[in-house]
Amino acid sequence: MKTVTLDINQKTCVLEVRDSELLIETLRDRLGLLGTKYSCLEGDCGACTVLLDGNNVLSCLILTLEAEGRKITTIEGMSPGGELHPVQQAFIDAGAVQCGFCTPGMVLASKALLDKNSHPDKEDIVRALDGNLCRCTGYVRIVEAVTAAAKAMEKTS
Amino acid sequence: MAILKDFQYHAPESVDEALDLLRRSGKPVLLAGGTFVLNTLKKAVAYPTDVIALRKIKALQGIADTGEGISIGAMTLLSDIASSPLIRERASVLARAAACVATTPLRHMGTIGGNVASRFFWVDLPAALVAVGAKVEWAAGSGKKVLDIEKFLALKGPDAKGILVRFLIAEKHPVGEYFRHTQAMEVDLPLAALAFAARKQADGLKDVRLVVNTALSPVVRLKSVESLFENTKTSRLKEKEAAAALRRDLEGGKLDDYRLQCLCGDMEALVERLKRAKT
Ligand SMILES: Cc1cc2nc3c(=O)[nH]c(=O)nc-3n(C[C@H](O)[C@H](O)[C@H](O)COP(=O)(O)OP(=O)(O)OC[C@H]3O[C@@H](n4cnc5c(N)ncnc54)[C@H](O)[C@@H]3O)c2cc1C
Ligand code: FES
Ligand code: FES
Fold first, then answer.
1. Domain coordinates in residue numbering, chain B
2. CATH code for position A109
3. Mean pLDDT across B82-99
4. pLDDT of res. B171
5. I need a labelling partner for B96 at 20 to 30 A (CA). Which of A8, A62, B84, B179 fits?
6. What is the distance in A from the centroid of ligand 3 to the CA of A55?
7. Hey, of A48, A60, A63, A71, which one would you mutate to test binding to chain B, going by the most B CBs within 10 A of its CB?
8. Whose atoms come closest to the Cα of B75: which ligand?
9. Which of A23, A27, A34, A42 to mutate to test the pocket of ligand 2 (most atoms within 8 A of CB)?
10. How far is CA B273 from CA A141, B92, B235, in A?
11. Domain B175-277 belongs to what architecture?
12. What is the rounded (10 degree) CA torsion for A11, A17, A23, A26?
């Protein structure tokens, strides 16, 4: 066991963790941040996506101890005051959510893209979401949602 | 239930400290981005006692212009290699290959060192690194040395135990192309790939290197195609001639028809692109 200090959704958490504990286990099972999903656990699906220093990464392939000193954002950190982030609003408006299982990962991957590239074209969006699988929507509405979110974010900036 | 069984995690701050841990631990494993290691541990039968993380070692980090060439720390992320202006300008095939590895989140986690040190035949970067004539700085029990990437890739058994510190690319290869085939989707693992690097001068191509990854055996240099291209003006290159030379180069390798056809198609596409390119 080791003591680790984590910066999760702009809050500092000091925890005792097993050396072999994965970040997904810490987030879900200790901290109750259930928006991060268990799924393939092999890096294929993106359901466990979180942001690490602004980049979308897979929490099923990161040891919790490796996340020390980095800024971790989960889907719960996207709307701190309860107000939806423009990406979340765009997913609702475009009907880009069906069962919702992939949605936290999709939203976080989209945020990571839009924070770096405020005018993405369709190809940029498809590429940025290439690590996130969706079994329901067929992706068309998801791409539309990210395009709409980019426009909404441009207006508010 | 815990996903991974227990081990001791260490995060040394220097190469020497990491080498010392490697020597002293029962069954150690080095951890870079973890995209291979942690996946393997979920299924591993031979489990490590110690995981030695490399993230705190400064010597393994960063992309720099050394004056004599480019230095790329082994812990550099694939996404940083793909987007680096320096690498795009001087070793564009490497930037292109890095951009093809896996998916966006895996490129945000996986490192160049982990890619090459995994020693799997199918990974993307070795072909590109051979194409730009890279060398590696390698730290092992016997000391530190600089090796040609091809020599490094051929190390086996105890000789292959050590720490990749950085990659060194001395020559400029501004012209670069990377062709890659997968079974189904673009993000799948490569089945075959072709890496090309060269300089272009008024009197023809220089320092041409063509390397094939068949995903089945170590990467292969296409010596006949290289000599066909060297000092030749791109307008004089011929698609069919280049594909025939590629077949000659791969003759002894017992390559299946599908892969061979893919690579011949790539060779023809490469010649076409080179002829079309203005600069
Ligand atoms: C779903 C999925 C898809 C993938 N697709 C591709 C693909 O298309 N193309 C591709 O090339 N790869 C692919 N990979 C493999 C992998 O993600 C990459 O090759 C990545 O670059 C590995 O780097 P890493 O830092 O994560 O390595 P790690 O997992 O940390 O390490 C890999 C190996 O290298 C050793 N090692 C790491 N760093 C060093 C060092 N500095 N010195 C000595 N030894 C070291 C480790 O001990 C381990 O044996 C895929 C992986 C997954 C999970
Ligand atoms: S659960 Fe992590 S990628 Fe599928
Ligand atoms: S909405 Fe069901 S998996 Fe995407």
1. 8-53, 58-169, 175-277
2. 1.10.150.120
3. 97
4. 85
5. A62
6. 22
7. A63
8. 1
9. A42
10. 35, 15, 11
11. 2-Layer Sandwich (3.30)
12. -70
